[in-house]
Amino acid sequence: MTAGNSDTSRLPLQSDVIDQYDDAAAAIGRLTSVLETQLPLGAVLQQVCEQAVSAIAGADFAAVTLLEHGVGSTAACTDEVARDVDFDQYEAGQGPCLDAASQRATVRASRSDACDRWPLFAEKCAGSPINSFLSSPILSGGEVPAALNLYSYADHGFGTVDEAVLRVYVSCINIIVSSARTSAGIKSELDGLNIAMRSRAVIEQAKGVIMADKGVDADDAFVILTRRSQRENVKVSELAASIVSSVTPSRN
C-alpha cells in the first residue's frame, strides 16, 4: 500500500488521465534518446528530473536524492527550490524523499500530512513555497538507495493518477539508468583497453631501443627496463615513453 494521503477531492476526467499518460510516454521517449548521446550518469539523472516535470501534470520541480550510509545528497534537480526542500529533509533526518529511498516505497503527501508525519522537516521548510510532495524509489546506477522527488506549489497537488503515472515513468527510467550505467562501464573498459594497448606499444618500442643500445635480446631488454623503472620509482610505461622520446627526432 502506498504511503500518503487519501485525497479524493480531485477526480480527473478520463481524457485528463489519457493526456497524463501521453505526456509520460513523450517524456520517456525523450529520455530514451538520451542513451544515444552517451551522456554520463549524472547528466542522465538531470534529464530524468527535467522530463519528470513534463510527465507529471502537478509537478513544478523535481530532484533525485541519493541516500548513502544514511546521509542524503541531491544528485540532480530542476531548480534550487527543489534542492532546498531536499536539504531541509537531510537536515531534519526525515521527510518524503528519505522515506521513499530508504523504505523503497512511493510517498505522497500534502503540507498538512508533512506536519503530522515529519514535524521536524515541516518546521524547517515552513517558509518554502512547496505544498505537495511525491517521491518514488529509483535505481541510482549503483547500490545506493535513491528517490525521484516531485514538488508542487499546489496544496494537494498530487493525486492517485499522478502517483500511477509516476510508477510507470519510474519503471521505465530504471531501465534507462541501468543502461546508462552499463554503457558507462563498457566505455570505461574500452578506454582502459585502449590505454593498455598504447602503453604496450610504447614499451615494445623502448625494448627495441635498449636492444640496439645494449646488444641484448628482448627478454633482457625488458628486465633492464623494469629494473630501471623500480630504481627511478616511475611506471614502466612512463619510462618507456621517455626512452622512446629521447631517440625520436623532434619536429620543427
Count every helix, treating DSSP H or I runs of 4 or more residues as helices: 9
CATH class of the largest domain: Alpha Beta
Large-scale geometry: elongated
**Helices and strands: which structural class?**
alpha+beta
Rounded to the nearest angstrom, the distance between the terminal CA atoms is: 74 Å
Q: Summarize the main sheet.
A: 6 strands, mixed
Mean pLDDT, all residues: 80
For CATH, the homologous superfamily of the largest domain is named as GAF domain
Compute the gyration radius: what is it? Answer: 27 Å
Q: Low-confidence stretches at least 5 residues in length (pLDDT < 50)?
A: 4-14
Proportion of β residues?
5-15%
Characterise the protein shown here:
- Keywords: Kinase, Transcription, Transcription regulation, Transferase.
- With 252 residues, this protein is α+β, with helices and mostly antiparallel strands.
- It folds into two domains: 17-188, GAF domain (Beta-Lactamase); 193-243, Winged helix-like DNA-binding domain superfamily/Winged helix DNA-binding domain (Arc Repressor Mutant, subunit A).
- The protein is built from nine helices and six strands, in the order E-H-H-E-E-H-H-E-H-H-E-E-H-H-H.
- The chain has helices at 14-37, 41-55, 80-92, 96-103, 111-117, 119-124, 160-214, 218-232, 236-247; strands spanning 3-4, 61-68, 71-77, 107-110, 132-138, 146-152.
- The protein has a six-stranded mixed sheet, with helices on both faces.
- Strand 5 and strand 6 form a beta hairpin.
- Helix 1 (14-37) packs antiparallel against helix 2 (41-55), helix 2 (41-55) runs antiparallel to helix 7 and helix 7 (160-214) packs across helix 9 (236-247).
- The longest helix has 55 residues, at 160-214.
- The chain starts with a strand and ends in a 5-residue tail after the last helix.
- The model is unreliable at 4-14 (pLDDT under 50).
